[in-house]
Design brief:
single chain; mainly alpha; 2 domains; 12 helices; Peptidase_A24A_bac; cell inner membrane; Prepilin leader peptidase/N-methyltransferase; membrane; transmembrane helix
Length: 298
């Protein structure tokens, strides 16, 4: 494989684009699954401790949002279907990128438009993993960086849709980063531990300082954990670069959105995608950027 790098890169792209198709499912269904779990827990609490509320509101109304989806609903079941006509999507229509193009971006049954975000996420996932294949080659670094990238794509999509970075995705990444760096895959064990701690506490401190001064919450706890993930994976040395890059990209995109959509300053904008982008850039080119910056100071 090392003698045919383009073959490895091509296979990586095709495989990753296929995984990207599944990540579209994760982005859509995972928040729904979480909301159903939250509502089930709330309903159980109300039924046990506040039966008078259940009696007044009615059990059917309490379960309304749960009943909007099939009883068995997870990342596998039920199969993919058109949200309008409910027609099952054929396996060949689920081919990454090509399936959407073959359908002309419309449902094969009712001709309802299918969002272009599906092939976009598949294409982006394929390109990201292909870049990793080019940069790392067939190594352990490539394998673990691919796992990190897949989860980052899912987290980005969920945060854009729901303003949510689920602990079920961020915390396993955090622990995985610490575990793999016991062997120094990307950083020394000490740098990884300090990085995870510093990554969390840095944004946590900013959050509380902003809240004390303004009385408002400027970001969510998921952002702290995501930065801690990159500290655990890359070490504390890359945190200033990631914070700088994410803030810069976030400011540019945020200002652009405010101008284009006439959004006010109080409109929430997810910060997780910018941390993910900055962290992924640092994973590939972080050391080169730091060396360049230090070189300009000398």
């Amino acid at each position: 494989m090392s003698q045919s790098p383009w073959l490895f890169i091509s296979i990586s792209f095709i495989f990753a684009a296929t995984i990207g198709s599944f990540l579209n499912v994760v982005i859509h269904r995972f928040p729904v699954m979480m909301k159903r779990e939250w509502q089930s827990e709330c309903n159980y609490y109300l039924a046990e401790y506040h039966p008078d509320i259940v009696k007044e509101v009615g059990e059917k109304r309490l379960n309304k949002s749960i009943d909007d989806f099939p009883k068995k609903y997870n990342l596998v079941v039920p199969g993919s279907a058109c949200p309008k006509c409910k027609a099952d999507i054929k396996p060949w229509h689920n081919l990454p990128i090509l399936g959407w193009l073959a359908l002309g971006g419309k449902c094969a049954n009712c001709k309802t438009s299918i969002s272009a975000r599906y092939p976009v996420f598949e294409l982006v996932t394929g390109l990201l993993i292909a870049t990793l294949a080019w940069h790392f080659g067939p190594t352990w670094q490539f394998l673990f960086a691919s796992i990190l990238t897949f989860v980052l794509v899912a987290l980005t999509g969920i945060d854009l849709d729901e303003m949510l970075l689920p602990d079920q995705l961020t915390l396993p990444l955090l622990w995985l980063g610490l575990i793999i760096n016991l062997k120094g895959i990307y950083a020394s064990p000490a740098d990884a531990i300090i990085g995870a701690t510093a990554g969390y506490l840095s944004l946590w401190s900013v959050f509380w300082l902003f809240k004390i001064v303004t009385g408002k919450e400027g970001m969510g706890y998921g952002d702290f954990k995501l930065l801690a993930v990159f500290g655990a994976w890359l070490g504390w040395q890359f945190l200033p670069l990631i914070i700088l890059l994410s803030s810069l990209v976030g400011a540019i995109v945020g200002i652009s959105m405010m101008l284009a959509k006439n959004l006010g300053r109080d409109n929430p904008i997810p910060f997780g995608p910018y941390i993910a982008i900055a962290g992924w850039i640092a994973l590939i080119w972080g050391q080169d950027i730091i060396n360049w910056y230090l070189g300009t100071l000398i």
